Hints:
Strand order of the largest sheet: 3-4-6-7
Structural class: alpha+beta
Shape: elongated
Helix content: 25-40%
Order of helices and strands: EEHHEHEEHEEHEHEEHEEEEH
Amino acid sequence: xxxxxxxxxxxxxxxxxxxxxxxxxxxxxxxxxxxxxxxxxxxxxxxxxxxxxxxxxxxxxxxxxxxxxxxxxxxxxxxxxxxxxxxxxxxxxxxxxxxxxxxxxxxxxxxxxxxxxxxxxxxxxxxxxxxxxxxxxxxxxxxxxxxxxxxxxxxxxxxxxxxxxxxxxxxxxxxxxxxxxxxxxxxxxxxxxxxxxxxxxxxxxxxxxxxxxxxxxxxxxxxxxxxxxxxxxxxxxxxxxxxxxxxxxxxxxxxxxxxxxxxxxxxxxxxxxxxxx
Length: 277
């Protein structure tokens, strides 16, 4: 469980709840698990952001299978779904690999492709990838355990990396938004994707719309807006958007300290704001 909300109360994951219902032991300390005396031939890993030590890998006779939502060696790291959407990819996929001590480096057990819909967000695409992964995993496990699957080494020279996303990485300069509202690319420079090394894209309406989708639901794209009624500058979350005649159109926004509203409602409530003036 992890602390969540303003009160820091412990929030249990779906895996925690399922295991408790099935009376399956749950460990939050790997050393305690290794010392528990429980025997296991195989482990399944998904959405785990830490490097697993060789001691833990060696504990399982058949190794650890890691479900990674990209077509490795592309997009190794913590944000592969966000990277694929932000870069405007038409497809991505899932790689099930046998874990080794390096980041998303192990040999490939299985891969499958998945199309990226133009309306996909990180939330919708990620859910679809893992739902399909669970089905594929159940089908391949018997053959894997019997040693009937030939593992394929990754082409490490083609590896690309994406990193943990911080809230500041989701910022969009107001000047970029003002240009894209008019169907224009921002002429003051490219847009930098900070969770990928040395990655910049043209600050066009389509690319900014892709970035907004990639940042949904977390950390959520945001900008700064000056409210001319009182002169305050506040953070404005951009929850969703779309393209219309090549123009970027915001759908839902949330002003700092307020509830989410439609973009039209926001403009009515704050007609003299710096984004539209």
